[in-house]
Design a protein that fits this description.
The protein has 386 residues and is α+β, with helices and mostly antiparallel strands. The protein contains nine helices and 14 strands. It starts with a helix and ends in a 5-residue tail after the last helix. The strands form two sheets. It has a ten-stranded antiparallel beta sheet. Strands 2-9-8-5 form a four-stranded antiparallel beta sheet, with no helix packed on it. The relative contact order is 0.15. It has two domains: 91 residues, no CATH class; 278 residues, no CATH class.
């Protein structure tokens, strides 16, 4: 009976999220206009925005245009969250170019230019050092629950079922100095001074996405196809979708650190409570997975200005979702213009408490928004390095 009641309670809590209607960008605009007309406070507007789940991309241009309707920092935070959560979606149909799809010959020509660009231009980038500033937004539990040593489980049931936050909020930000080599991002040069390991999983990363490898694997898979035109900064770009099977993939998902807690024995009784001896170990999640995504290509030059990847993960994994978008922009470094990562969005869903008893059923959604600043030639930062 008690178990049934717990399950019923859990279902009642998540049902509104499952039933939530996807909101269009125009409906978001109308909502903000109405709230502004009613002179709602910053807190009231932020509360209303928390219940919005967009079904279309909130582009940076639209976000800027809505700035006069944002009354303060609380509602601005929620708008930033909506931008991040919708970063991989298509923009409203009204914002898409109406040009017909290119014929097969033109599509092939665009992809040939993209391959040449990825291999002969982008992959020839030298080593750079860059400052990567990452803001983190998340819902779910604040910290990881561990239960290690000698503990009394009586009286702790309520804490084990403590309800996590249903709404995403700003968690913090940090700065990493990272290296790029041939256009591929490496791990941070030093571990961040505020680690997001045991108090909130982040990808330990392998190398960042390699455009040349992705294009080659997409072509080999036979699942590289025309998707649509899309305008970015007023220019139409050709968008192609791709899918890579696990057997042909080198996409590695690597996250730290999930607790695994188990009983090591019973120590007896004190009063009415049973004392159990437990131990907590930390387990990384690492797997090579299938993936799919989109390439945004300048049809005239083959330059790739945006890459979207979505990892193929299982619901039984500690990591359920890793979706990433990287935007590339022209930057002048050492007197020469180069296309390099400028911004990125990473959207994840994890089971933060791993195999740690009942808490394993808690799910956390996180949006990482990163900006890349102050690119410098690596040799000028670290003279004598190779």
């Amino acid at each position: 009976m008690k178990r049934s009641l717990c399950l019923l309670l859990a279902c009642s809590l998540v049902a509104p999220l499952w039933a939530a209607k996807k909101t269009t960008v125009q409906e978001l605009k109308d909502t903000l206009a109405a709230l502004n007309q009613e002179k709602k406070t910053d807190e009231e507007v932020a509360t209303r925005l928390k219940d919005i789940d967009l079904g279309e991309e909130l582009t940076s241009a639209t976000l800027k245009s809505l700035a006069p309707l944002i009354p303060g920092p609380l509602s601005q935070e929620q708008m930033n969250i909506l931008e991040g959560r919708s970063a991989l979606l298509s923009p409203p149909a009204s914002d898409l170019p109406t040009s017909p799809a290119p014929d097969a010959a033109m599509q092939k020509a665009i992809l040939t230019r993209a391959t040449d660009y990825a291999n002969k231009v982008y992959a020839q980038n030298p080593r750079f050092m860059v400052k990567k500033v990452t803001a983190r937004y998340q819902d779910g539990v604040q910290g990881i629950r561990t239960n290690s040593g000698m503990t009394s489980n009586v009286g702790q049931a309520d804490r084990a079922w403590e309800l996590p936050s249903m709404y995403m909020r700003f968690y913090g930000s940090h700065l990493d100095e990272v290296e790029t080599d041939h256009g591929v991002e490496k791990r941070p040069v030093e571990k961040t001074k505020v680690p997001w390991g045991q108090n909130g999983q982040v990808s330990e990363g392998g190398p960042g996405p390699n455009l040349s490898v992705i294009l080659q694997q997409a072509e080999d898979s036979g699942k590289l196809s025309w998707l649509r035109w899309e305008s970015i900064a007023g220019k139409p770009f050709a968008v192609f979708s791709f899918a890579i099977d696990k057997k042909k993939s080198n996409y590695v998902v690597n996250y730290c650190c999930f607790p695994v807690t188990g009983d090591t024995g019973r120590m007896g009784y004190e009063g009415t409570g049973a004392n159990f001896q437990t131990a907590t170990d930390w387990k990384d999640f690492k797997a090579t997975v299938s993936y799919r995504g989109e390439l945004f290509i300048d049809p005239d030059t083959g330059v790739i200005v945006r890459l979207i990847t979505q990892a193929g993960l299982k619901p039984t994994d500690f990591v359920h979702q890793e979706d990433m978008r990287i935007d590339y922009a022209p930057l002048v470094i050492d007197g020469r213009e180069r296309m390099l990562p400028a911004d990125s969005f990473t959207i994840t869903e994890v089971v933060p408490n791993g195999d740690n008893y009942a808490a394993r059923y808690s799910i956390r959604h996180t949006v990482f928004v990163a900006t890349y600043q102050d690119y410098q030639m690596a040799d000028s930062v670290n003279p004598g390095t190779k």
